[in-house]
């Protein structure tokens, strides 16, 4: 308050009263929110792009945004079938055009039939178009080897982020020592830390094991939980599989152990499974939490509460801009589920074009459809290139002295560890920067490569990392990886 | 807690432990949220539609959803130009097709050039595509007679709702007697009450004057503010113009008085102006708060904080499903504006198809463009029909005994007052229902007409209203209005 009064006198001297809304008077929870994926380093990248456009000389000709999992921004082309059907939905006059395949037209007509006024321009019900919820449920059943999924437990959302925030909102209660605690992995995707800060919940960190390719260790969950119980009421456990930013793909055994732990400790499970189509490593396989839970049988299958999230932004399609996604809830209390629907209804509905896109993603062309061959070829090409890029990333980084990189088993990121010389750490501290932020900023200024410091995701004290996407085209990625490795060598030399 | 323990023993008897997340243990703020526009009456409407599909006999053949401002669901056709450009953006292969006008192609190319990877499938920056923010700023300047608008003060959003919630989030702080209070009109659009409940802010009601066509009276603002100051810290004032649900269009004098009041009382102004294109009454005109504020000169123009919201869901286009919208902030503290951007960045970006649509809405075809004539004709046809329907609604309701309806000067709703006989009020109380909810439920069951009870928006104690959209096609609307009036007469007779 002293500082706010200071502002006021300053303002009065300038002939202006203070603002009603200032840094001091605003929502303190919002002030505490951090979101590194679009943080200061990305702001600086934007400025550099502007300087380049204005003709300012730089040691590079373009800024490479390897900070965010945005495939199409990196040049990946949209899947033809998805965009054909969507264009038909947007402009149904095209349904008479001979330049669209029959199955695309049928799919568009089917989606439009399910829309209010047969138009993408009408609101849908708040949980999403019923037909699409049914298609999602069928997708889940196929994915999980026939284990049933109920469309009434599927809620469409504005990207997965929206659904994750909604479920976390339901869970937050209590004050002081009874405040809700939520276990999240470290490193994590910063949506979790940001949302918990905004909601005033307690973030309970459990560390993934870098020595074992970022595996999740149940004994570490125990440690985190016990420590947290002193000062909050832990009620939920978040898992990201395949891992963001780690690229780890969990084994079935690990998932079983996590479910047993959550059950015994009475924790609501949130499974962020948006990278379920992005598994590359030989021997790795995606197991959904839902499937493992159901196959474990009683008491888990009937009682353990679970929310599983998926998105149209990742996978092979990378349709980030459409903001499509869904959550499936399992064993959720019926009255709470009603409350969730009520909460969603305040925002009316998820974007309908994103819902339509999700429908196509969960029910792609069948082998007998005219669009099947092209769809399949495009899909496979994207996934094969991603697998090659995952391998390449691991390889190039591990050849560089002072950089070590776990295998990128899945998802779209590497999260390599970098050695930073003590003098660089000191220099960063003088500048008031996290040492890996200092490294990443210097990297950006000298090479134009934009990656996100590990401190934005969390990491063990004294270790330094960055997250880099594997999304640039293969040959460009190779150059980037080599450039980054050379920069690290130069940086190390400079501060040794 | 007693009840929660009761649940637990019940569960143990059933061989099930309790859920982690129950009505008792969930976020109490979320539990308190209400949203009438999609509340129990709409749930019942959905059930009735299902029963009709299953062949259950009803005294009607279809449910008419006059509960929500969803033009295309009511049969309004999308504006051709908007959908042509959007289809081209979705599927750029169509850019070579001869069936699209040249200006549509140019517009699509211009939008795609501004997208990451030249695709709607890439994320945009969190504040929205820069080119579109610039187009929005130019729209505001034209609308406001040349008063400058800065694209850096424009933030695109997922419908207007998203932006309104974001600005309210910034404003919420304090505990107990220092909790943020927000003045909202009664009747209000329930997004406001729902959001304040969820954020734990204090809702401060000011009543609109039904006797003066729902005008906003500054002496009532004073009364509300003085009363509130005892138990909270009022920091913001929300105004909806044109009014939802009231249909009122504020005079310039009224807006000046509101601005003066907000300035003197140090209140942040939120102006919900999503119906700015929907003004029908002779003598009524839309004045933006921004324009009036700027024309009032110092000290207001340089100091009064204002956020103004707009949307693609209403107006002549009614593109609700695309979830496009924006907020322009005026005189916002620069550091707070940075915090707002940070908060938006956690959700990555508004849906890009909605951003593209917004661009077309704010910069429609120019008179020299090939698409101008058709665009203009379609736009005028929609607005002229809305004006006729506004007039018709007022007329038919005012001819019905026991119903009185203010002129629908703007927006998309009537909010008529209904007399309910004392025996109906008693019967409702026996059933634990608000009397107007009882009336609306009976109306729905007997006629299939779905309207929202006034209690969902707020009204003076002892008065009863409902909100009904003016969106059904003209002849259908006439039948509906007559049917509703007849039902009211019958209902009145039944309970007299």
TrEMBL record, chains A, B:
BP terms from Gene Ontology: L-alanine catabolic process
EC code: 2.6.1.2
Pfam families: Aminotran_1_2
Subunit structure and binding partners: Homodimer.
Protein name per its UniProtKB record: Alanine aminotransferase 1
Broad class of enzyme this protein falls into: transferase
Family as reported in the entry's similarity comment: Belongs to the class-I pyridoxal-phosphate-dependent aminotransferase family. Alanine aminotransferase subfamily.
Secretion signal span: none
Listed GO CC annotations: cytoplasm; extracellular space
Cell location: Cytoplasm
Molecular-function annotations in GO: L-alanine:2-oxoglutarate aminotransferase activity; pyridoxal phosphate binding
